[in-house]
Amino acid sequence: MSEKPLSAEKRQLVQLHHLAQCDSVQLWKWLRDDEPVEAALRRFPRQQRLMEDTKAGEDGWARALRTLEHVGARPVSWRDDEYPALLFRHPYPPPILYVQGELLPEDACAVAIVGSRRATRWARELAYELARDLASMGITIVSGLAAGVDAAAHEGALETGRTIAVVGSGIDRTYPTHHREMQRRIARKGAVVSQFPVGTPPRPYQFPLRNDTIVRMSLGVVVVEAPQRSGAIVTANLALERNVELMVCPGDAGRPSCRGSNRLLKEKGTAMVENAADVLEALRLEARLPLLSEADALLPSRVPPWLTLEPASIEELARRAGQPVGSVRAELTELELRGLAVRLDGDRYRAVASKKPGGVPTSLA
Asked: pTM of the entire structure?
């Protein structure tokens, strides 16, 4: 995609993140949704701003921008059209993401596949097959670029479709380091996403934050294989907390690597999945995917009255609906998945008039 110069506000947002040196969700301590980023910079502690104004601070800030350019990454803010719509379903989405590759509207139909770093051959093969089959149906596969199940899921998705890797370090610090080539391939056919400042090394406390973003970016989470104490179980619990559909692949009862995932099935009553069809059924996606069902276009419309055939901005739609922008954006994502709304340039939306047999448009009320 063509690279455009960074806007002043985008540069200010990167500067704020560079100053704060934190997970980008924590930037909401200074940011306000209805204010320019410049106001957040003014609110930032004066002593730290003065340090940034020194020669060393300027060098660090310039170095961060040069690094982004060098690794082919760019900042994407919560105000950008390409910002992942699913992130708005939950409070305080990361206000800035660093992205290699492309984020597309169809990534709103995404499933996360996670599991053990020390995965068995069975788990790696199953993760690969699940990702390959789901990606071939137009579903974006989200995972964490880790060894084991994550890597297998990315590889399977790369064979037939799109995948997004959400990393627990700066976008320029590949972890594990032997996944550099995989990261490059994912960026070519999907996207690599980080919520941490440029140059941030991988630290243990950052991975639960990364796992939360994986959950936020997905309609559902599939746990393929996980011992009782693992990052995959952390991700599973986050999915339950955020009311995101959790699915588990059953494993051998006596195998330690499956005890955590099997316990989820036993104690949490999660959906059991063994193949892509099970995932579609658990998420009730069969009628949403054009490749799977053409009958969806004949279903009665369920378009809210504030969305019409006339394009309108997200702010105008939120005003009509009397709801926060984030809530309206989440509902629009659902309507897009059902083929009842379309997103246009400039973050505008309009309804899609599906037709009943005989060519009579359905009611948009």
From this structure: 0.77
